[in-house]
Amino acid sequence: DWDKLMKEYEGSKTALVADVDCTAGGQSLCEKVGVSGYPTIKWGDPSALEDYEGGRDLSSLQSFASENLKPMCSPSNIDLCDDEKKKQIEELMATADDELEAKIKEKEDLMAATEKKFKKRVEKLQSKYQEFQTEKDNTLADIKKSGLGLM
C-alpha cells in the first residue's frame, strides 16, 4: 500500500512520499528524525516531522495524504504564511549564516538539556515507584503471613 501511495505522489512539487532504509544508508537520517522502530511513518514539516498514527491500509493513507500533505508556510511558500511567520522568515533569511547556525545550535542545546532534565526526572520517578512497589509487596506479604489465610 505504501508503494502505491509513493507512485501517486511521484513528481509532486508539494509533497514527498518516500521510504528510507534505516538499516543501511538512511541510518543517519532516521536517527535525526527520531525513527526508533520499524516501520515508522513520519509526516509534516521536514524540520519537525510528526509520527503518523493512522491506519496503514491504502484508503487510510490516501485519505490522510489528501487532507494533510499540502503546501505549507515556508521560505519557498511564503504566500501561505501569516504576517507573523512572514516576518520571522524574513528576519531569519536576513541573518548571516554563522549567526543562524549559532541560533540553531543554541536551540538544539536547549532541547537536549530539556530531554536530559526530563530523563533524570523520570529516572527519579521510576526509583520512587520501585520503592513504593517493594513497600507494598512487603506489607501485603506480611499481612498474608500473619494468618490471613487461616481466618
UniProtKB/TrEMBL annotation:
Keywords, in A-Z order: Coiled coil, Signal
GO-annotated cellular components: endoplasmic reticulum
Biological process (GO), any one: protein folding
Ranges in a coiled coil: 86-142
Transmembrane segments: none
Residues of the Thioredoxin domain: 2-66
A single MF term (Gene Ontology): protein disulfide isomerase activity
Classification via Pfam families: Thioredoxin (PF00085)
InterPro entries: PDI, Thioredoxin-like_sf, Thioredoxin_domain
Entries under PANTHER family matching the protein: PROTEIN DISULFIDE-ISOMERASE C17H9.14C-RELATED, THIOREDOXIN DOMAIN-CONTAINING PROTEIN 5
Family: Belongs to the protein disulfide isomerase family.
The protein, known as: Thioredoxin domain-containing protein
Annotated source species: Oxyrrhis marina
Taxon lineage: Eukaryota, Sar, Alveolata, Dinophyceae, Oxyrrhinales
